[in-house]
Amino acid sequence: MMPLYKLNEDKMNKTINKLAVRLLDNGQEMVDWETCYSDTGVFGEGTVSHWLSLHTQYEWQATGTSCLHDQIKDLCNLIKDDQIYKYKSSNEDLHKKADGHSDYILDKDGKPKNFNPFSNGTYRRRK
Predict the structure, then answer these.
(1) Which of 27, 43, 116, 127 is the most buried (most CB within 10 A)?
(2) Helix (H) or strand (E) holding 70
(3) How many whole angstroms separate alpha carbon 92 and alpha carbon 57?
(4) DSSP one-letter code for 3
(5) Do 42 and 49 meet the contact criterion of CB atoms below 8 Å apart?
(6) In this structure, what are the phi and psi dihedrals at residue 89, rounded to the nearest 5 degrees?
(7) CA dist list (Å): 73 to 13, 18, 80, 107
(8) How confident is the model at residue 126 (pLDDT cuts 50, 70, 90)?
């Protein structure tokens, strides 16, 4: 599979790419480019949709998985507005506690910490 940023050099894919490359955790990319891709027809004949995948240590709050799949406008809105949770371990076998609940890194209030720089308020535009 080709990474999303190398598929279709049209403006809209560049828009997704511009947002996705800013998903950083301590300077490390959260996006797993090797599993990102575009497909056609899922939302109707002639439509193009995109799969944006995070590394397995991260999970989108909206889907409960490491992937988002939507058309460009909705995908861009999800990237900017959704929360990203991070598991305490990068080992997928340790993503769940013994009681079956997800073992996320927690914030000071004991809730899953949001690592999305767009929705947690830490992203700053360059001047």
Answers:
(1) 116
(2) strand 67-70
(3) 7
(4) -
(5) yes
(6) -120, 145
(7) 10, 13, 11, 30
(8) low
- Which tens digit of pLDDT belongs to each residue from 16-66? 989 999 999 999 999 999 889 888 888 888 888 999 999 999 999 999 999
The pLDDT tens digits of the residues spanning 84-119 come to 999 999 888 888 888 888 999 999 999 999 999 999
3-state SS of 9-44? CCHHHHHHHHHHCCCEECCEECECHHHCEEEECCCC
Element (H, E) at 69: strand 67-70
By DSSP bridging, strand 67-70 and strand 58-60 are: unpaired
Exposed/middle/buried for residue 116 (C-beta within 10 Å: 0-12, 13-18, 19+): buried
Task: Decide: residue 71, CB within 10 A, 0-12 exposed, 13-18 middle, 19+ buried.
Answer: middle
Nearest to 26 by CA among 51, 2, 57: 57
